[in-house]
Design a protein that fits this description.
With 355 residues, the protein is of the alpha+beta class. 23% of the residues lie in helices and 37% in strands. The protein has 2 domains: 231 residues, Rossmann fold, CATH 3.40.50; 113 residues, OB fold (Dihydrolipoamide Acetyltransferase, E2P) (Beta Barrel), CATH 2.40.50.100.
């Protein structure tokens, strides 16, 4: 069953701006779904239309099977967590969390029980009489989450809720939010431009670009099997190698690069013909630098043109004989290699994809 359905939903703004371009999306009941993409791709506008903060120009939005296009936000039974927390600074934590319950006509005794339960869920018991300014940023974010959960929403909406936190706290909070969502089983739609957050937290990742959905799928599927150059490039460090198909046999494909070097590709999902011009994508971490353990791998020769030291690893830019630039991530064992070093790059066929 779908908790949220979008059917040909679009949003146009003044000046002919198409923010969301006739997208279809099913959000399964109990799933954690992330809308991922760069600024201006339409992900936040999509979330705001689900919430009722924006009215769609066209299409249908259904929540629990009911069309809600004309339903005001306070009648949709949605919990929302904003990027800037949106807590009332002059109200106590208790009153902040209880805010939605009071407008639903819940009795005082029941409100007290549900507020305490919500604070227990976010692991902040006993803070009812404090005020937001007396809490840290991470604690304020937990209170915002408690306020969204206390009304027992059909769907939890999260609009880049971690972007204002420092790196360590972001990692802690993303684990916390995912654990809470799994524990209580609420359907969640999460908006972010951070691919690490999307891959770590989601059951389903929806990659958006220019108002359209480029690809959707489980995190591993979207990362390992990108269907477009945009998806491959946006999710992680990807290399794109222009090549010509030399041979196709038994699910294996052989391609030639500009300098004549050949690369084996195991990508049975793509139908190509000998002589066809293609783009081969390879993730940086899938390329082994001067490795001898991959007997079935293709080996490309190149020269290191740049080094970024990252601590236990280093990012190397390598220029191949034909002029192509390749980036690889390698673990540092005996010191980082230097600019000008000659290296061999081993690439296994199963790590290559043809776009």
């Amino acid at each position: 069953m779908s908790s949220v359905e979008l059917k040909a939903v679009e949003k146009h703004f003044a000046g002919g701006i198409i923010a969301v371009d006739a997208i279809d999306l099913d959000v399964p009941d109990g799933a954690f779904v992330t809308l991922l993409g760069p600024s201006g791709c339409g992900k936040t506008t999509t979330l705001r239309m689900v919430a009722g903060l924006e009215h769609p120009t066209g299409g249908e939005i259904l929540i629990k099977g009911k069309r809600v296009n004309e339903t005001p936000i306070h009648q949709r039974n949605l919990g929302m967590v904003f990027q800037n927390y949106a807590l009332f600074p002059h109200k106590s934590i208790f009153d902040n969390v209880a805010f939605g319950l009071k407008y639903r006509g819940v009795g005082k005794a029941d409100i007290a029980v549900r507020v305490r339960r919500a604070l227990d869920i976010v692991r902040l018991p006993g803070v009812e009489q404090r005020f937001p300014t007396q809490l840290s940023g991470g604690q304020q974010q937990r209170i915002a989450l408690a306020r969204a959960l206390v009304i027992e929403p059909d769907v939890l909406l999260l609009d880049e809720p971690l972007s204002a936190l420092d790196a360590n706290l972001r990692e802690e909070m993303r684990s916390e939010i995912k654990a809470i969502q799994r524990r209580i089983g609420v359907t969640a739609i999460f908006v972010t431009h951070d691919q690490g957050e999307a891959l770590a937290m989601s059951d389903l990742v929806v990659v958006m670009n220019k108002g359209k959905i480029e690809q959707r799928g489980a995190p591993a599927e979207v990362y390992e099997h990108p269907r477009s150059e945009f998806v491959a490039n946006f999710l992680g460090n990807a290399n794109f190698l222009p090549a010509t198909v030399v041979a196709v046999a038994g699910g294996g494909i052989s391609v030639a690069l500009a300098d004549g070097s050949q690369l084996a590709v195991a990508d049975a999902a793509r139908t190509v013909q000998a002589g066809e011009k293609v783009n081969v994508v390879v993730r940086a971490e899938k390329i082994e630098l001067d490795g001898g353990g991959l007997s079935h791998a293709s080996v490309l020769k190149g020269t290191i043109s740049a080094v970024d030291y990252l601590g236990s690893t280093a990012r190397y830019d390598v220029t191949l004989a034909g002029g192509e630039k390749v980036t690889t991530l390698a673990t540092i064992r005996d010191g980082a290699r230097r600019v000008g070093d000659q290296v061999n790059l081993s690439i296994a066929p199963e790590h290559c994809r043809i776009l």
